[in-house]
């Protein structure tokens, strides 16, 4: 890893509260200064960024990164068939080695497309933690618990979650946090969810769960418990400022008010919701009601990539066409969903280019046809940019991508290993 302690990013267009041209000084892992008075002598490394846009690193608030190995598996299916017939039978064959290979492939893809932090739930998570530590990015990682209402299974799942806390919480210089991650209200018993809530609160951790993803899930919970999924989770004490609910597609107006009152974050996953034909989440209503709303890619086999630039654009377009109102999801709101709202959800002091924030910074090329002209740089970032326009990425003050070359990872070796791991799976 590059051992630089100070970096001057010279003259980029900066996407902050205002869009302005200035220089950024990074010292250790923080943004020390943003000003026009900085010069080359102020830092050990100087990056000429006059033809770049500097923006905060993107925050992917719901994914399963090792599912990169399942790219292309189970296209054209609804969620439950996709899980039962395509995904779960393959996941039964996962091993430490396979999860490590899939996670490493995801690190390459995320760094090269501008993601500096992600929120994950999956299996063999110590392997994902190892990949994150080596890559240099940030992550909140949870062992994905499913008990299918079985007592013995519940105890084993909680034991695995506790082991992950011990092995990985606050590791990698604080870049890795652990979260408690029961899979969903229709695959986890009430006891498992309640014990998850307690485990999260005892250890001051986030709680990350799939909720209200499909109409089938809502019907099932209503039949079983006589209420909708978020109301049901509220009776279990699972809704708080530390909760990140993935999907929230079929949320009722009453539930939206409840989420706002409880301070819950919703992670919206537009590609996955469209690909699995789950539905359209009421994102415009979430924002209107002050719900902290963020963006995720979900796993690669329901997306089929980890490019947060395309998720941003899809988020905005989907809401505009759904409401037949072009004024919903203003460009700035969509951008905030993919950056500062995600940082807030995960409780990390990043997501904005401001002095004192952690130095998670992405430099995007502007000297490419689809970024010209640059009338409104923020608009180009949300609607025109592609993940492949990311030129440089800094996370925690370290340069992980420089002129599109990874500095911490051997890209070709990782691709080759992932290819053979996918064949085994
Ligand atoms: C318990 S670890 C995570 C578990 O979730 C599966 N999964 C991936 N995407 C989704 C989704 O959109 N809804 C529900 N479950 C999903 C993943 O394959 C793992 O089994
Ligand atoms: Zn998911």
From TrEMBL:
Identify which top EC class this enzyme belongs to.
Answer: hydrolase
What are the protein's UniProt keywords? Answer: Hydrolase, Metal-binding, Zinc
Q: Which GO terms of type biological process are on file?
A: S-adenosylmethionine biosynthetic process
Reaction(s) catalysed (UniProt annotation): S-methyl-5'-thioadenosine + H2O + H(+) = S-methyl-5'-thioinosine + NH4(+); S-adenosyl-L-homocysteine + H2O + H(+) = S-inosyl-L-homocysteine + NH4(+); 5'-deoxyadenosine + H2O + H(+) = 5'-deoxyinosine + NH4(+); adenosine + H2O + H(+) = inosine + NH4(+)
Give yes or no: UniProt keyword Metal-binding: yes
Recorded family membership: Belongs to the metallo-dependent hydrolases superfamily. MTA/SAH deaminase family.
**Subunit structure and binding partners:** Homotetramer.
Q: What is this protein called?
A: 5'-deoxyadenosine deaminase
Question: From which organism does this entry originate?
Answer: Methanosphaera cuniculi
Gene name of the record: mtaD_1
